[in-house]
Amino acid sequence: MRTFRTFLVHAKSNQLDDDQLRRRLNAQPGTKFRFRHGMFLSLFAVIRKKWDEKLAAENFIDFEDMLNIAADHLESGRWDSGYELVMVDEMQDASHARARLARALVNRPGRRLFAVGDDWQSINRFAGADLSVMTDFDRWFGDGEILRLERTFRSPQSICDISSAFIQKNPAQLAKQVISSTPEFTPTMKAISVGHAVQFASVLQDHLDELNRGVQSGAIPAGAGGQVQVRILGRYRNLLNRVSDGLRQARGNRNNWERLNVGFQTIHGSKGLEADFIVILGMNTGAYGFPSTINDDPVLRLAMPEGDAFPLAEERRLFYVAMTRAKRSVLLLTIRNKESPFLMELVKDHNLTVHGAEGKALRTTICPECNEGCMVQRTSRYGYFFGCSRFPKCRHTMKLSRVENSPDGDNDLPGR
Known about the structure:
Elements: H1 2-13, H2 18-27, H3 34-57, H4 63-76, E1 85-88, H5 96-105, E2 112-115, H6 132-135, H7 137-141, E3 151-152, H8 157-167, E4 179-180, E5 189-194, H9 200-217, E6 228-234, H10 237-251, E7 260-266, H11 267-270, E8 275-280, H12 313-323, E9 326-335, H13 341-348, E10 354-356, E11 375-380, E12 383-388, E13 397-398, H14 400-404
Parallel strand pairs: 1-2, 3-4, 5-9, 5-10, 6-7, 6-8, 8-9
Antiparallel strand pairs: 11-12, 12-13
């Protein structure tokens, strides 16, 4: 029933009746899910009818109806708000229904709309957000003036440069140049690779110990209350819980970090927040890695806003959000030979060096075939060779000598 409820929210928000949903299904290429999705729509039509009948019988409306009915009254002239200026925050998260209501409120002479948003931080499509409301603003609301707020007082310039270059590889994102007023903290971006995810807790403990000593000695300037804020972020809560439990077991009842304010959050939950130091867990491949490879039920696409054609566009924006929570520095934790393609992209662009837990820079050769994985040593009956870490998705192999002579092989570029 959860899928039906989610589908209902999207269908109502996007004003899709049963006939329109059928037309969307018929317009989809291929026949892989056509029968399943057709059966789903048949069941959905019955559920939606019963849902609306129950609401009417109890004299209730749901949230989506509230938005749509309000917009209907405004568009038909049955009611006029009288507001001359309408201000909207977080415009990048506006759904079709919310945008329609905002448009209806100002669709009179002398009315003005003032909207603030950042399309680089649009990470709520699953909840109905329609990015086109921002990227096609003129189509929605008519000609308007665009003011770019390009100065930030949070992240230092190096994090701004790295994150901005990363997000703007998607040509659909609105271009801007972010300028920082925050002094640099070295290194601002660093990655540590371990053999297994269970080692994240011990690496994190060492990192927190080092930060605490730095604040105690004065090498790291303290903030409010003589502390610095550290936030540990993860794509999924289950990884955060495992690492938090491991850290708690290692510490026991000792309060070793009296100069640190430490917290754990999902990346979605961190949006709008900030901390001096950010740690991003699970920068590796796998079902619960980052970027996530877990997909929503494909039937939901019939009712959702049109997605971005750029690969992993929303996950890319989510990584941008994670990086830009930092006021001083970002630490990425990954698993050796399972490095995230996002992390490898930063390495390839010479914006990041991967270190082992002991601090030594690791050899990292980008796979020349897929440009996402890294070349890892493997063995066969003919001896040793290097293969892509994304095997079997990428089957590229190289001889040992070719990797040793690779320009990326030493990975001795300084971390930023």
